[in-house]
Amino acid sequence: MAVAERKKLAIIDGKSVFYRGYYAMPNLSTRDGVPTGGVYGFAAMALELIKKLKPDYVAVAWDKPKTNIRRRVQMYPEYKAGRKPAPPDFYTQIPILHELLEAFGWPLYELDDYEADDIMGTLSVKAQKKNIETQLITSDLDALQLINGHVKVYALKRGFSNIEEFHPESFTAKYGLQPDQFLDLKALKGDSSDNIPGVPGVGEKTAIDLLKQYKTLDGVYKNLPEVKESLRNKLEAGKKSAYLSKEIARLWTDAPVKLDLKAMDTTKLDTAHLQSLLQKLEFRSLLNALPEHMRAEVPTTDTLGGVKLKVSKNIVIDSDKVLGDIDLGKADPSTNSGQ
Questions:
Q1: Closest to 126 measured CA to CA, from 262, 246, 256, 263
Q2: Are the C-beta atoms of 42 and 286 separated by less than 8 Å?
Q3: CA pseudo-torsion sign 139, 142, 144, 149
Q4: pLDDT (0 to 100) of residue 107
Q5: pTM of the model
Q6: Distance from the Cα of residue 162 to its chain's centroid
Q7: How far apart are the first and last CA of the chain?
Q8: How far apart are CA 182 and CA 189, in angstroms?
Q9: C-alpha angle with apex 263: 262 to 264, nearest 5 degrees?
Q10: What's residue 315's pLDDT?
């Protein structure tokens, strides 16, 4: 008797991917001056991956503004401190993106006190209980701690054209560790992007060597007498910081969210509405890049058709950045509008 193939759930780290789209295509706007580069970049990358991964279900996890990191900041007030705010037109594009997500038929999850990767972790745990494979699409390597036989991570590297797939075997090939050691690795080496301190003076190579020998953070500290003096002194001084860093970096998989497979079903969408919205946003090249299940016969138009979009000044970050070599049919992301 043939074994049924697992269903697949793709979960997109929404703000993480949108952030990359915004800085990859800062000049893109509609003819009326509505900035849309982040929305276009997000949609282009997401659609390309959806076509390749062919998930049965898709959801988007989002960082709820201001309240998503509240619990971690209570644990460590310096968590994610010092980050520069994004330019104003980054935020004005978010409602447009949310409208497009609705048209794609991809439900969006956001919660107080839980970050997007916590939500991704929670949904992946729930999916595993139903024997569903989860594909996490993100630029945040915190998700690597979730890897197992049911969970893969598709990590966006530089731009959109370089995406690294992680599963248990590829994780071990890269780090020489098991995925369940990733959290202890981060506890030792820290994470400057999130302002997680780790153990001062301990870098990734040293942390990996320690975990290869002693397996866990607890194992490292139980065997301190075996460690050479200079490193032992750093570990002793940074013990409290290491364990605090581990708790801050740990993804919480208890978020109060429901795995609503019916809402995530990729076949449940209004294709005519989706294509009409893409035309109004002047994303004509994306019409050619849509997966088959999103296609429908609709009249083409070069006008906005009265779409109500908030107009704001488009701030140029780097006019030379583009999506890279991502395959988008007739897309020409170097132009300023009319995508």
A1: 256
A2: no
A3: negative
A4: 97
A5: 0.85
A6: 14
A7: 49
A8: 11
A9: 90
A10: 29
- The residue type found at 202 is V
Q: Could you tell me the domains of the chain?
A: 1-175+252-339 (3.40.50.1010), 179-249 (1.10.150.20)
Tokens 């007498």 correspond to: 225
Which DSSP helix (H) or strand (E) runs through 201? none
Higher pLDDT, 148 or 315: 148
Average pLDDT for residues 96-109, to the nearest whole number? 96
Bridge partners for 153 per DSSP: 136, 166
Contacts of 129 (CB under 8 A, 6+ apart): none
Distance (Å, rounded) from C-alpha 261 to C-alpha 259?
6
Average model confidence (pLDDT) across the chain = 87
DSSP state of 14: H
Alpha carbon of 35 to those of 89, 230, 286: distances in Å? 7, 53, 17
Bridge pairing between strands 57-61 and 8-13? parallel
State mean pLDDT over 219-243.
98
Q: How far apart are CA 267 and CA 107, in angstroms?
A: 13
Asked if 79 contacts 73 with a C-beta cutoff of 8 angstroms, the reply is yes
In b/e form, how buried is each residue of 296-321, taking b as 16+ CB within 10 angstroms?
A: eeeeeeeebeebebeebebeebeeeb
Name residue, tokens 């949904």: 123
